[in-house]
Specification:
Radius of gyration: 19 Å
Number of strands: 2
Helix content: over 70%
Strand content: 5-15%
Shape: globular
Structural class: mainly alpha
Number of helices: 10
Oligomer: single chain
C-alpha cells in the first residue's frame, strides 16, 4: 500500500506543471464560457431565484451572526475538511482534524511520502459543502429541489467568501505549492468550479459535459499551435 501511495503522490507531482500549463491555456476560454453562462442566468433569473435566495441567506447570516463570533473558525471549517477529503481520496490515513477560533485549523494525515500538491491546494478551488448538496440533488425528487437550491446557493457563496478571505501571497499552503503555480492554476480551477455548480442546477439547460467537450477541443487546438511553434 505504501508503494502505491508513493507512486500516486509522485504521479500527481509530475502532473503539476502540465496541469498549470493546461490551466493557463484554458483561463481565457473559461472566462468566455462563464460569461455565456451568466448571460443565460440573467435572462432566466426567475428560474434561479432559490439559488440566489441561498446566496442572500448566507450574506445575511454572516452579517448578523457569524461575523460577530470571535475568531474565524466558521470560515476555516470547509477549508480543513477539503484538505482531509483530498488526503482520503489519495489514500492517506487521517489522524486528526482541528479547527480553532484563534489559530485557524490543521489537518494531520499519514501515508508514504509527504502528501501531494493537490491535497495542499484543494481548498482554494473545491467547494466541498456545495458538492455534498449536488450529490443530494442528484438523488432527490423534484419536490425537494427548492430547498436544495437554497442550500446550494448558501454553500456556494460561503465557499467564495471563505476562499477570498484565505487566499493571499502569505498563505502557507500557497507558498508550499509555489505562488507561480498557484496563480497559474487557481483562476482556471475556480472558473471551472463556478461553471460546474451552475451546471448542476436541474433542468437549467446548461450541460457541464458539453462544456468539458468544448474545453477539450479548444485545448487540443492550442496545444497543436504550441507544438507547431516548437517544431518549426
Amino acid at each position: 500500500m505504501n508503494f502505491f501511495i508513493i507512486l500516486l503522490n509522485r504521479t500527481i507531482d509530475i502532473l503539476k506543471y502540465p496541469v498549470a500549463l493546461v490551466a493557463v491555456l484554458l483561463t481565457f476560454e473559461l472566462f468566455h464560457v462563464l460569461y455565456e453562462v451568466l448571460e443565460y442566468v440573467y435572462v432566466h433569473l426567475e428560474f434561479y431565484k432559490d439559488f440566489f435566495m441561498g446566496m442572500l441567506a448566507y450574506m445575511v447570516s454572516w452579517a448578523l451572526i457569524f461575523r460577530k463570533i470571535r475568531g474565524n473558525w466558521f470560515l476555516v471549517i470547509e477549508h480543513e475538511l477539503t484538505h482531509a477529503l483530498f488526503a482520503l481520496l489519495t489514500f492517506h490515513r487521517m489522524n486528526f482534524l482541528l479547527v480553532t477560533a484563534d489559530r485557524g485549523g490543521v489537518v494531520n494525515y499519514s501515508g508514504a511520502g509527504n502528501g501531494n500538491w493537490l491535497i495542499t491546494i484543494a481548498p482554494y478551488f473545491f467547494p466541498t459543502f456545495s458538492m455534498i448538496i449536488i450529490l443530494f440533488i442528484s438523488f432527490s425528487e423534484v419536490q425537494h429541489y427548492p430547498v436544495l437550491m437554497i442550500l446550494l446557493g448558501y454553500t456556494f457563496f460561503y465557499h467564495i467568501h471563505s476562499t477570498i478571505e484565505e487566499t493571499s501571497h502569505t498563505q502557507p499552503d500557497l507558498k508550499k505549492v509555489g505562488l507561480w503555480f498557484s496563480w497559474s492554476f487557481l483562476p482556471a480551477a475556480n472558473l471551472l468550479t463556478i461553471i460546474g455548480i451552475l451546471s448542476a442546477i436541474p433542468n437549467d439547460r446548461i450541460e457541464f459535459l458539453r462544456t468539458l467537450e468544448h474545453l477539450y477541443a479548444y485545448l487540443l487546438v492550442h496545444l497543436s499551435d504550441i507544438l507547431k511553434l516548437i517544431i518549426y
